[in-house]
Amino acid sequence: MKRSSLVGGVIITATILFTMNKAMSADHYQTFVVPDDVMEKYFSLPIEKQQKSCKARNFVFDKLPVLAQDPPQRIKGYNSRMDNPGLTEGAKETDKYTLRMSEALTGIISSNDENQKEIVLESLYQWAKAKALSKTKNCIRSDGSWGCDGWWSDKKGQNKYAGHDFNTAQLSIMHLAYGYYFSLASFNPQDPRHEVIKDWFNMFFKRNKKAEQMYAGHDSSYHWPEFMESIVNGKEPSVRKIKRLIEFQNDQINDDGSIQKRTTRGNKSLWYHYATLNEIVVNMEIARRYGVDIPKGMDEKVVKSANIFFDGFNDFSYMDKWAKEAYSGVYEPGIQHFNLDIRRVPNGTVWMYVMQYRYPNTDIANRIAKFVDDKELNNQAADGITGVGYGCIYKAIL
Question: CA angle at residue 286 from 75 to 211, to 5 degrees?
């Protein structure tokens, strides 16, 4: 990817920067998320500092060959509430694999370890060769319309809903694609395994839901997969769609920092608030990357949203004022289904590091830093929600 940006009055081409670090190559850094100036700051760091923040843990590379064995052919069995992963075919295997792969794919961008890259490539190839998850029910009809109905037809969300199976399969593959094109596609590019992997990804790109309707979740209503597909095809993502997306999400955040249809999800309100805050902050970085202005007042509302998370995390009953609405959820006073050991919630922490970088020397930056230190959040290279541990890049340049 050969984009240029103005830094200190001098044009610095990404390709030149890559040659400064033998861990990089001209085909790295295929991302629709992180702005060029942020990546340039990261790549300009000594390799030791890059690795300190983004290095994947050694055990991940031991796990991947095991997780690559017997890839699941489908996901089947989620209920509307998605509280039954243990009873859902293929769900746990997919979750474990994509989480470990997110860390590995993030880590190798600053690695000179050819053996690690070979392990990651072979592991991904095994899933691609087996056409993993391709037998999941396809909810997209031939005319492009949605073909899986019945979400929350049971008031407690216990009815089976094939739409969750489909979306989970599609987005899991998309997250692998984000990571692959970010760091692995240029490793031994003539290796025939790459074509098998790309063909597998393309199968799922074609099955994606059209990025037309605007809503939170599903990688911003399938806009992220569309942006990735544009880059893969040598095009820039639609700036018009990015502008529309950031304006939608600005409108989605209420003046008090709560998020419509997310902070109101009953006893899962804290989780939906947390995950959507991460999505919103990532979308703000996408907007910055492509020169789309952040709407006036959005930064202030996002800070309020962050404070809601911390206040709710410290006292679940704080969420009751919103949770009692129980939008597609179940309300239980003072109860939130969110693991208090945040180290066991390995997804969705990108926003914490981005906000420290974007709002330095502020109360919220200090609050996040203390939280990160107190909770020992040292695994910022892994993120199954975004497919790449983007947070480690921002942490490195703080």
Answer: 45
